[in-house]
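Is this the right way to post structure tokens for a design question? Let me know if I should format differently. Anyway, here goes:
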């Protein structure tokens, strides 16, 4: 399927994969974050908002295996990160504290965390749902809403199948990766959704060559 000019959302296989397949694909996602820009963008995103020894709390929504939460704790020893995912299987190997819950019905009161953060999560949802999610994130956060996601483009779309021989990606990783890029954002699209969610001061930055976007909306 060629890359569409606009967002095109279809279900990803990981959400319903059996345990052994899900674990293999989650491991690939850890490698993608480690070697293909996820951790770099994380460092850049939080680096402008918190000091190295500062204590702060984060809700990581759609946290999966928790690799970015672990990376964040390594960068900031005072970070208290709570992981949330809708599927228990994704969180089995993740560090505590962790919560299985629906991101559209966050089980927390207003201003429960300094920051609400998500990575490679928002693109799973329609524009209206993204606005709803960001609105709920804003309600739970005290200091800001932060997100990392994909920049929709040909480099990201073709990268995983082109590098299968080198990285030995799982079949689901390649399939879901291209589905994710089809559903991903351009910078101006994500910014417009943030503004609709009441984050009118938000900034969205493109990170090349990693084909990532970062959304920063500090209060």
């Amino acid at each position: 399927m060629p890359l569409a000019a606009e967002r095109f959302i279809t279900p990803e296989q990981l959400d319903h994969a059996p345990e052994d397949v899900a674990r293999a694909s989650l491991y690939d996602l850890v490698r993608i974050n480690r070697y293909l820009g996820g951790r770099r963008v994380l460092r850049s995103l939080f680096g402008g908002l918190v000091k190295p020894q500062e204590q702060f709390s984060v809700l990581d929504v759609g946290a999966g295996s928790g690799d970015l939460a672990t990376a964040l704790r390594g960068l900031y020893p005072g970070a208290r990160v709570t992981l949330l995912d809708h599927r228990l299987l994704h969180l089995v190997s993740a560090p505590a504290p962790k919560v299985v819950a629906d991101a559209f019905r966050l089980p927390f009161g207003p201003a429960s965390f300094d920051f609400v953060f998500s990575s490679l999560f928002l693109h799973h949802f329609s524009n209206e749902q993204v606005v709803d999610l960001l609105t709920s994130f804003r309600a739970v956060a005290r200091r800001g809403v932060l997100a990392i996601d994909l920049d929709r483009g040909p480099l990201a779309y073709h990268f995983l199948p082109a590098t299968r021989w080198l990285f030995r990606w799982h079949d689901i990783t390649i399939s879901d990766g291209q589905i994710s890029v089809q559903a991903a954002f351009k910078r101006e699209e994500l910014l417009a959704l943030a503004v609709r969610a009441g984050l009118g001061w938000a900034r969205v930055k493109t990170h090349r060559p990693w084909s990532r976007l970062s959304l920063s909306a500090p209060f």
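Format looks fine. Someone answered above. Worth noting: The beta strands are 56-61, 79-85, 98-100, 113-119, 141-150, 203-207, 212-218. The chain has a mean pLDDT of 95.
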